[in-house]
């Protein structure tokens, strides 16, 4: 398939707000694509490059290349070029990247060049595209969308389901069944501001569970064969011998469990997420790593037991099954709210939340007890509650935006106050900025500018912004050795002098 066709449809989908028109446009595109191209088409439309990070940033892309007059580049050509780019290593990499990008861009029309640029800069963001693409695939193949959705949830991959469905027709869907041994996408949660709000929103009997800050794991046991998968369905069995041992001791031998891997220190408090992530991420000498930081799995759900799916059972019944398989110390701590209208029970749930935080955990999840497990979805029946952290930080510099944000100062460099009156950079963010905020800050930051290298504008440190974030994490890239997790701008604070911004001590203290 020509890239030009994809670019046209991408533009058409972005330009229409009618869901049915978007689906029809995508269905037409999928029907024309070779089944083998469909995976790439779906990825590019959603702004994903299957190769992941390919090391091509603005410094490589900024060079203008005369565009081709007529489209000739195929989707597969773009994929081949991205693969070659991803493989570049060693000295001279940057020059080689530039050469390959120039070669690719020279074959692309102006529209294709713009699309490739936005794709590689992470600016092709089509809200909820995967959900629409799924319906487009269903329409193109003449299969019910609900059946395609279920197949995707069980297989974990829309591109794979789409390829088989478009090549073989609706009968291919029967192949996608829940099986012990093949991972499914986990259920995710929505956010609520407080436990009281969450219980009220669910409006039904529910359970409040500890939210443990570790690595999500799905543990499959089929007889003696035990497999552990991450949230993105990578097999990490070899890295977690503790979890394999635990699964071997359970009372069943054909099940799928959902849980979180954490580590506790000598006093029983959870160790920081990053320590767990680096232990789980490391393949070298697992036994030595295990001796230094032993991990434990804590389970909160069951997707299959005795070889049969339990996904569609209500949460209360799944918990009964879980309690039969998994001994209590390996189950998440929980408090049941039988009656959401009982102020006494809601107060007890709030107390459970406070106690969970005191014990060093991240927050809680409030889950409806009558709801099924909806794999691969951010379900409305799971609501997470975490304390909100905010800081007032000072803008030290800002980067010029690209694509839709061209001509606007976007990515902000954020600093906290140090005792000597200087500022310590904590990270960057362009999240949370509305168009209006972008316009306002561009004007204000231009007034404060001291230098502009065409990429970054350094400013006098005078503008304060209120930043929400999910936690402080270690980062060798920043001078204080820490950065903020999921920083996003809540509002500009032109009323607040920089001398009253938060200090680096406050930031370090908020690590808890
Ligand atoms: N008791 C629990 N029930 C469900 N998920 C839990 C529980 N304890 C910890 N978790 C973790 O919390 C996550 C729930 O939040 P969500 O599904 O929104 O994931 P997320 O996008 O990674 O968000 P967050 O960064 O808040 O963890 C799960 O993915 C899981 O890893």
UniProtKB/TrEMBL annotation:
It holds the Pfam family DNA_ligase_A_N. It catalyses: ATP + (deoxyribonucleotide)n-3'-hydroxyl + 5'-phospho-(deoxyribonucleotide)m = (deoxyribonucleotide)n+m + AMP + diphosphate. GO terms for molecular function: DNA ligase (ATP) activity. Its cofactor is Mg(2+). Its EC number is 6.5.1.1. It comes from the Bacteria. Keywords: ATP-binding, Cell cycle, Cell division, DNA damage, DNA recombination, DNA repair, DNA replication, Ligase, Magnesium, Metal-binding, Nucleotide-binding. Residues 288-418 form the ATP-dependent DNA ligase family profile domain. ATP binds at residues 209, 216, 231, 260, 300, 378, 384. It is an enzyme of class 6 (ligase). CDD domains: Adenylation_DNA_ligase_Arch_LigB (cd07901), OBF_DNA_ligase_Arch_LigB (cd07972). The active site is at 211 (n6-amp-lysine intermediate). NCBIfam families: dnl1 (TIGR00574), PRK03180.1 (NF002868). Belongs to the ATP-dependent DNA ligase family. DNA ligase that seals nicks in double-stranded DNA during DNA replication, DNA recombination and DNA repair. This is Probable DNA ligase. It comes from Streptomyces maoxianensis. The gene is lig.
